[in-house]
Amino acid sequence: MELSEIASALIEGNRKRVQELVSLAIKEGVPPERIINEGLIAGMQVVGERFKNNEIFVPEVLISARAMHAGMDLLKPLLAKSPGILKGKIVIGTVKGDLHDIGKNLVAMMLEGAGYQVIDLGIDVDAEKFVESVKTYNPDILGMSALLTTTMPYMKVTIEALEREGLRDKVKVIVGGAPVTEEFAKEIGADGYAEDAGSAVELVNNLLGIKSA
Ligand code: B12
Protein backbone atom coordinates (compact mmCIF):
# COMPACT_ATOMS: atom_id res chain seq x y z
CA MET A 1 0.00 0.00 0.00
CA GLU A 2 0.98 3.63 -0.46
CA LEU A 3 1.24 5.81 2.65
CA SER A 4 -0.31 8.64 0.65
CA GLU A 5 -3.59 6.67 0.87
CA ILE A 6 -3.52 7.32 4.64
CA ALA A 7 -2.96 11.02 3.95
CA SER A 8 -5.93 11.07 1.54
CA ALA A 9 -8.23 9.33 4.01
CA LEU A 10 -7.19 11.81 6.70
CA ILE A 11 -7.85 14.76 4.39
CA GLU A 12 -11.33 13.34 3.68
CA GLY A 13 -11.83 12.96 7.43
CA ASN A 14 -12.58 9.26 6.98
CA ARG A 15 -11.64 7.98 10.43
CA LYS A 16 -12.55 4.33 9.73
CA ARG A 17 -10.45 4.29 6.57
CA VAL A 18 -7.50 5.90 8.38
CA GLN A 19 -7.70 3.18 11.04
CA GLU A 20 -7.94 0.41 8.43
CA LEU A 21 -5.00 1.75 6.44
CA VAL A 22 -2.81 2.39 9.49
CA SER A 23 -3.53 -1.18 10.69
CA LEU A 24 -2.64 -2.49 7.26
CA ALA A 25 0.62 -0.52 7.16
CA ILE A 26 1.51 -1.86 10.62
CA LYS A 27 0.80 -5.40 9.39
CA GLU A 28 3.00 -4.82 6.37
CA GLY A 29 5.82 -3.86 8.71
CA VAL A 30 6.08 -0.17 7.79
CA PRO A 31 7.98 1.61 10.60
CA PRO A 32 5.59 3.68 12.78
CA GLU A 33 7.67 6.84 12.24
CA ARG A 34 7.09 6.56 8.47
CA ILE A 35 3.36 5.99 8.94
CA ILE A 36 3.23 9.14 11.07
CA ASN A 37 5.37 11.34 8.83
CA GLU A 38 4.39 10.21 5.34
CA GLY A 39 0.80 9.32 6.17
CA LEU A 40 -0.73 11.24 9.06
CA ILE A 41 1.40 14.41 9.18
CA ALA A 42 1.50 14.66 5.38
CA GLY A 43 -2.31 14.60 5.35
CA MET A 44 -2.62 17.14 8.16
CA GLN A 45 -0.29 19.46 6.23
CA VAL A 46 -2.73 19.52 3.31
CA VAL A 47 -5.62 20.12 5.73
CA GLY A 48 -3.63 23.05 7.14
CA GLU A 49 -3.09 24.57 3.71
CA ARG A 50 -6.76 24.24 2.77
CA PHE A 51 -7.81 25.74 6.10
CA LYS A 52 -5.47 28.66 5.56
CA ASN A 53 -6.87 29.25 2.08
CA ASN A 54 -10.45 29.17 3.38
CA GLU A 55 -11.24 26.11 1.28
CA ILE A 56 -12.32 24.23 4.40
CA PHE A 57 -13.42 25.37 7.86
CA VAL A 58 -13.16 24.39 11.54
CA PRO A 59 -15.68 21.49 11.41
CA GLU A 60 -13.80 19.77 8.59
CA VAL A 61 -10.46 20.34 10.34
CA LEU A 62 -11.89 18.82 13.52
CA ILE A 63 -13.07 15.74 11.65
CA SER A 64 -9.60 15.28 10.16
CA ALA A 65 -8.06 15.87 13.59
CA ARG A 66 -10.22 13.07 15.00
CA ALA A 67 -9.10 10.78 12.21
CA MET A 68 -5.51 11.71 13.03
CA HIS A 69 -5.99 10.85 16.70
CA ALA A 70 -7.56 7.52 15.75
CA GLY A 71 -4.50 6.69 13.67
CA MET A 72 -2.12 7.83 16.39
CA ASP A 73 -3.90 5.66 18.97
CA LEU A 74 -3.04 2.57 16.92
CA LEU A 75 0.60 3.59 16.64
CA LYS A 76 1.15 4.63 20.25
CA PRO A 77 1.67 1.10 21.64
CA LEU A 78 4.29 0.45 18.99
CA LEU A 79 6.25 3.55 19.89
CA ALA A 80 6.11 3.10 23.63
CA LYS A 81 8.95 0.91 24.77
CA SER A 82 8.60 -1.36 27.78
CA PRO A 83 9.06 0.76 30.89
CA GLY A 84 12.56 -0.42 31.70
CA ILE A 85 14.95 2.17 32.97
CA LEU A 86 13.37 5.55 32.40
CA LYS A 87 15.71 8.17 31.03
CA GLY A 88 13.96 11.12 32.63
CA LYS A 89 10.68 12.79 33.45
CA ILE A 90 8.90 15.29 31.25
CA VAL A 91 5.84 17.42 31.89
CA ILE A 92 4.17 18.73 28.74
CA GLY A 93 1.12 20.83 27.92
CA THR A 94 -0.48 23.22 25.45
CA VAL A 95 -0.51 26.75 26.86
CA LYS A 96 -3.50 28.71 28.09
CA GLY A 97 -5.99 29.79 25.45
CA ASP A 98 -4.77 27.18 22.99
CA LEU A 99 -6.69 24.00 22.22
CA HIS A 100 -4.39 22.46 19.60
CA ASP A 101 -3.03 19.16 20.83
CA ILE A 102 -2.10 16.99 17.87
CA GLY A 103 1.53 18.13 17.73
CA LYS A 104 1.91 18.06 21.51
CA ASN A 105 0.51 14.52 21.62
CA LEU A 106 2.95 13.42 18.93
CA VAL A 107 5.88 14.89 20.83
CA ALA A 108 4.66 13.13 24.00
CA MET A 109 4.31 9.83 22.13
CA MET A 110 7.77 10.02 20.59
CA LEU A 111 9.35 10.91 23.95
CA GLU A 112 7.61 7.97 25.59
CA GLY A 113 8.84 5.81 22.76
CA ALA A 114 12.36 7.04 23.44
CA GLY A 115 12.12 5.88 27.06
CA TYR A 116 10.96 8.98 28.94
CA GLN A 117 8.15 9.22 31.45
CA VAL A 118 5.72 11.81 30.13
CA ILE A 119 3.11 13.60 32.22
CA ASP A 120 0.66 15.26 29.85
CA LEU A 121 -1.26 18.19 31.35
CA GLY A 122 -3.47 18.50 28.27
CA ILE A 123 -4.60 21.73 26.63
CA ASP A 124 -5.33 25.26 27.85
CA VAL A 125 -2.81 24.93 30.69
CA ASP A 126 -2.23 28.07 32.75
CA ALA A 127 1.03 29.13 34.40
CA GLU A 128 -0.20 28.10 37.87
CA LYS A 129 -0.83 24.56 36.65
CA PHE A 130 2.62 24.34 35.03
CA VAL A 131 4.20 25.65 38.24
CA GLU A 132 2.22 23.21 40.40
CA SER A 133 3.23 20.30 38.17
CA VAL A 134 6.91 21.19 38.52
CA LYS A 135 6.47 21.19 42.31
CA THR A 136 4.53 17.91 42.28
CA TYR A 137 6.46 15.85 39.75
CA ASN A 138 9.91 17.44 39.84
CA PRO A 139 10.45 16.81 36.12
CA ASP A 140 13.76 17.15 34.25
CA ILE A 141 12.01 18.94 31.39
CA LEU A 142 8.96 21.15 31.03
CA GLY A 143 7.57 21.29 27.48
CA MET A 144 5.10 23.87 26.20
CA SER A 145 3.23 23.81 22.92
CA ALA A 146 1.47 26.71 21.17
CA LEU A 147 -0.09 26.81 17.72
CA LEU A 148 -1.44 30.34 17.76
CA THR A 149 0.53 33.56 17.49
CA THR A 150 -1.79 34.93 20.17
CA THR A 151 -0.96 32.17 22.70
CA MET A 152 2.78 31.94 22.03
CA PRO A 153 3.59 34.84 24.41
CA TYR A 154 2.04 32.82 27.23
CA MET A 155 5.14 30.64 27.22
CA LYS A 156 7.02 33.62 28.58
CA VAL A 157 4.35 34.16 31.23
CA THR A 158 4.95 30.58 32.42
CA ILE A 159 8.73 31.01 32.46
CA GLU A 160 8.34 34.19 34.52
CA ALA A 161 6.05 32.35 36.94
CA LEU A 162 8.70 29.65 37.36
CA GLU A 163 11.27 32.36 38.07
CA ARG A 164 9.02 33.99 40.66
CA GLU A 165 8.59 30.66 42.44
CA GLY A 166 12.34 30.03 42.43
CA LEU A 167 11.87 26.95 40.24
CA ARG A 168 13.46 28.11 36.99
CA ASP A 169 16.84 26.47 37.73
CA LYS A 170 15.24 23.17 38.68
CA VAL A 171 13.83 22.37 35.26
CA LYS A 172 14.81 22.76 31.60
CA VAL A 173 12.12 24.45 29.54
CA ILE A 174 11.53 23.48 25.91
CA VAL A 175 9.01 25.00 23.52
CA GLY A 176 7.49 24.17 20.15
CA GLY A 177 4.51 24.49 17.83
CA ALA A 178 4.13 25.76 14.27
CA PRO A 179 4.59 29.52 14.90
CA VAL A 180 7.41 29.06 17.44
CA THR A 181 10.99 29.62 16.29
CA GLU A 182 14.45 29.10 17.72
CA GLU A 183 14.81 32.86 17.95
CA PHE A 184 11.57 33.24 19.89
CA ALA A 185 12.64 30.46 22.25
CA LYS A 186 15.88 32.33 23.00
CA GLU A 187 14.04 35.60 23.39
CA ILE A 188 11.75 34.25 26.12
CA GLY A 189 14.57 32.46 27.91
CA ALA A 190 13.65 28.85 27.10
CA ASP A 191 16.41 26.21 27.11
CA GLY A 192 15.46 24.67 23.80
CA TYR A 193 13.24 24.56 20.74
CA ALA A 194 12.51 21.75 18.29
CA GLU A 195 10.56 21.95 15.07
CA ASP A 196 9.15 18.43 15.10
CA ALA A 197 8.66 15.41 17.31
CA GLY A 198 11.80 13.62 16.13
CA SER A 199 13.99 16.64 16.86
CA ALA A 200 12.23 17.06 20.20
CA VAL A 201 13.62 13.67 21.27
CA GLU A 202 17.11 14.69 20.14
CA LEU A 203 16.77 18.01 21.95
CA VAL A 204 15.75 16.35 25.21
CA ASN A 205 18.54 13.77 24.92
CA ASN A 206 21.04 16.60 24.39
CA LEU A 207 19.73 18.72 27.24
CA LEU A 208 19.97 15.77 29.63
CA GLY A 209 23.29 14.59 28.27
CA ILE A 210 21.88 11.29 27.05
CA LYS A 211 23.27 9.72 23.87
CA SER A 212 20.63 9.19 21.14
CA ALA A 213 20.07 5.55 20.23
C1 B12 B 1 -5.93 20.94 13.42
C2 B12 B 1 -6.05 22.44 13.59
C3 B12 B 1 -7.08 22.92 14.41
C4 B12 B 1 -8.02 22.00 15.21
C5 B12 B 1 -7.26 21.48 16.45
C6 B12 B 1 -7.66 20.08 16.84
C7 B12 B 1 -6.71 19.49 17.84
N1 B12 B 1 -7.24 18.57 18.62
O1 B12 B 1 -5.53 19.83 17.94
C8 B12 B 1 -9.20 22.97 15.55
C9 B12 B 1 -10.26 22.84 14.50
C10 B12 B 1 -9.84 22.75 16.94
C11 B12 B 1 -8.52 24.32 15.41
C12 B12 B 1 -9.03 25.48 15.98
C13 B12 B 1 -8.52 26.74 15.75
N2 B12 B 1 -7.51 27.08 14.93
CO1 B12 B 1 -6.34 25.76 14.16
N3 B12 B 1 -5.31 24.69 13.09
C14 B12 B 1 -5.16 23.35 12.91
C15 B12 B 1 -4.12 23.01 11.82
C16 B12 B 1 -4.87 22.77 10.50
C17 B12 B 1 -3.20 21.85 12.04
C18 B12 B 1 -2.42 21.83 13.36
C19 B12 B 1 -1.82 20.47 13.53
O2 B12 B 1 -2.35 19.64 14.23
N4 B12 B 1 -0.71 20.20 12.80
C20 B12 B 1 -0.07 18.88 12.77
C21 B12 B 1 0.95 18.75 13.92
C22 B12 B 1 1.64 17.39 13.83
O3 B12 B 1 1.92 19.76 13.77
P1 B12 B 1 2.26 20.82 14.92
O4 B12 B 1 1.09 21.05 15.74
O5 B12 B 1 2.96 21.97 14.30
O6 B12 B 1 3.30 20.04 15.85
C23 B12 B 1 4.61 19.68 15.47
C24 B12 B 1 5.67 20.76 15.76
O7 B12 B 1 5.15 22.07 15.78
C25 B12 B 1 6.31 20.34 17.05
N5 B12 B 1 5.71 20.72 18.33
C26 B12 B 1 4.44 20.98 18.65
N6 B12 B 1 4.30 21.21 19.96
C27 B12 B 1 5.52 21.10 20.51
C28 B12 B 1 5.95 21.24 21.82
C29 B12 B 1 7.31 21.08 22.12
C30 B12 B 1 7.77 21.23 23.52
C31 B12 B 1 8.24 20.79 21.08
C32 B12 B 1 9.67 20.67 21.38
C33 B12 B 1 7.79 20.64 19.75
C34 B12 B 1 6.44 20.79 19.47
O8 B12 B 1 6.28 18.92 16.94
C35 B12 B 1 5.02 18.53 16.40
C36 B12 B 1 5.13 17.19 15.77
O9 B12 B 1 6.04 17.12 14.70
C37 B12 B 1 -3.28 24.36 11.82
C38 B12 B 1 -2.53 24.64 10.52
C39 B12 B 1 -1.03 24.53 10.65
N7 B12 B 1 -0.39 24.72 9.54
O10 B12 B 1 -0.47 24.32 11.69
C40 B12 B 1 -4.34 25.39 12.16
C41 B12 B 1 -3.93 26.71 12.81
C42 B12 B 1 -2.87 26.50 13.87
N8 B12 B 1 -5.22 27.17 13.46
C43 B12 B 1 -5.41 28.41 13.33
C44 B12 B 1 -6.57 29.09 13.84
C45 B12 B 1 -6.72 30.54 13.46
C46 B12 B 1 -7.51 28.41 14.66
C47 B12 B 1 -8.76 29.02 15.33
C48 B12 B 1 -8.55 30.41 15.94
C49 B12 B 1 -9.87 29.01 14.26
C50 B12 B 1 -11.18 29.64 14.66
N9 B12 B 1 -11.49 30.68 13.95
O11 B12 B 1 -11.83 29.20 15.57
C51 B12 B 1 -9.10 27.97 16.39
C52 B12 B 1 -8.43 28.26 17.74
C53 B12 B 1 -8.83 27.33 18.83
C54 B12 B 1 -7.94 27.52 20.03
N10 B12 B 1 -8.32 28.38 20.97
O12 B12 B 1 -6.89 26.90 20.13
C55 B12 B 1 -4.29 29.13 12.59
C56 B12 B 1 -3.38 29.94 13.53
C57 B12 B 1 -3.01 31.27 12.93
C58 B12 B 1 -2.12 32.05 13.81
N11 B12 B 1 -1.26 32.79 13.17
O13 B12 B 1 -2.15 32.04 15.00
C59 B12 B 1 -3.60 27.94 11.84
C60 B12 B 1 -2.09 28.14 11.59
C61 B12 B 1 -4.35 27.80 10.49
C62 B12 B 1 -4.22 29.01 9.59
N12 B12 B 1 -3.22 29.11 8.78
O14 B12 B 1 -5.06 29.88 9.63
N13 B12 B 1 -7.44 24.25 14.66
Write a structural description.
This protein is an alpha/beta fold. The chain folds into two domains: 3-79, Methyltransferase, Methionine Synthase (B12-binding Domains), Chain A, domain 1; 89-207, Rossmann fold (3-Layer(aba) Sandwich), CATH 3.40.50. Helix content is 55%, strand content 10%. The protein contains nine helices and five strands; from the N terminus they run ααααβαβαβαβαβα. It has helices at 3-12, 15-27, 32-52, 58-79, 102-113, 127-137, 154-164, 182-187, 197-207; strands spanning 89-94, 117-120, 141-145, 172-176, 192-193. It has a five-stranded parallel sheet, with helices on both faces. β4, α8 and β5 (192-193) form a beta-alpha-beta unit. α1 (3-12) runs parallel beside α3 and α4 (58-79) packs parallel to α5. The longest helix is centred in the N-terminal third of the chain and has 22 residues, at 58-79. It is globular. The protein starts with a helix and ends in a 6-residue tail after the last helix. 39% of the residues are buried. The model has no long low-confidence stretch (mean pLDDT 93). Cobalamin is lined by residues 41, 44, 47-48, 51-52, 58, 61-62, 65, 97-104, 106-107, 143-145, 147-150, 174-179, 194, 196-197, 200. Cobalamin (B12) binds at residues 41, 44, 47-48, 51-52, 58, 61-62, 65, 97-104, 106-107, 143-145, 147-150, 174-179, 194, 196-197, 200.
